[in-house]
Amino acid sequence: MNGISKLLQARVNRRHFLQGAGVALSLPFLESSMVYGAANPRRLVCVGNHLGFWPGGFFPEQSGKDYETSLSLKYIDSHRDDFTIFSNLDHGTGGGHSGVHVFLSSIRKEEAAGFPEKNMTLDQVAAEHVGSTTRFPSITAGLGGGTDMVWTRSGVNVAPINNPARIFQALFVQNDAATQSAERRTLSNRGSVLDALLASAKTLDGQLNAADRGKLDQYLTSVRDVERRLQMSREWLDKPKPESPIEPVEDLERMQIEEMPLFYDLLTLALQTDSTRVVTFEIPLGFKTSELNLGGYHGLSHHGKDEERLKDLQIVEKYLLTQFARFLDRLKEAKVFDDTLIVLGSGMGDGSRHSNRNLPVILAGGGLKHHGHLVCPDEAHKRIPLSNLWLSVLQWFGVERDSFGKSTGTFSAMEIA
Fold this sequence. Notes:
alpha/beta, Alkaline Phosphatase, subunit A, 2 domains, 7-stranded mixed beta sheet, two-stranded antiparallel sheet, 35% helix, disordered N terminus
């Protein structure tokens, strides 16, 4: 691909990172200035990069709206009035690569059993809220094996679809009669199993103590949720899919990184056609291009402040952020940008040090009053959990809840004043 070829040949200069000063807001951050109706459904997009972004090139030196754009953010600067960068947000966890999966949940999978919703992620809570309103409650896509970013309330990882042809088929290709019949039988069989489980659970109810009854009630709630999803599937099974505005996507062998624009285009169409209102996109440790094998992307992240490695790392990050800017362009062209809240970030704060602190986080769109570079408190006793921001995102989406993961409240001006 010519675009990536040019970017891989480019060289960039290093900038030094200087943390900005704090900023106080007069209103809670996520209070929208727009009025939404039934014609403007809210949508959520989460883009996660396993290795994050080099902190020295990502975070601006100044806080507020008048910051001088950073080495990395200049590639999305055309949208600077429509996004906010956050400093000093994380989940207070460690683990390096094994801690990246907490990005959208705040809860490590090893400790998930101690939480009612386990390590359920932001997007999956939003997907449950959408329910049967759209054909797909959520779509998880990504390059290669992704980055373990999406987890259900059962603590199960949702692997990304890494073939764009499969997404095109799901969105626009109507199944033939034989396939629909097979899907209907599958749904019926699953429903029979659920009926049997419910019957067995009810016979136990009178024999349990209070604690076990609580566990059983939680279990039955999960079963009822599965039943609701099955009913949703039946409802959509016979409904025609929208016509595709693009040529069919063929199942071809492509270089992973060069599929990114196609994935972003398909996810835009998924939102534009209201086939789903929740999408995620995952970028893994390594990938290939026509010109280079960037399985070494992971190696570049361990730059040790070596100037040459940092230059090569910035070439990769330039491509990733240029494609993200293009994605925002597509959402604006599709006229869904102001109703869509887009998260860009990672559970990795500094790949060179395997640090999961001070995560790179951007919120874009959503009809919000954006604040440029928002520097949250750095002092240990004043730090704000990233899950507070996720709770406010869910409330913006319309989910009525007062906690999420390890949140201590919503993300508001009082917390960062």
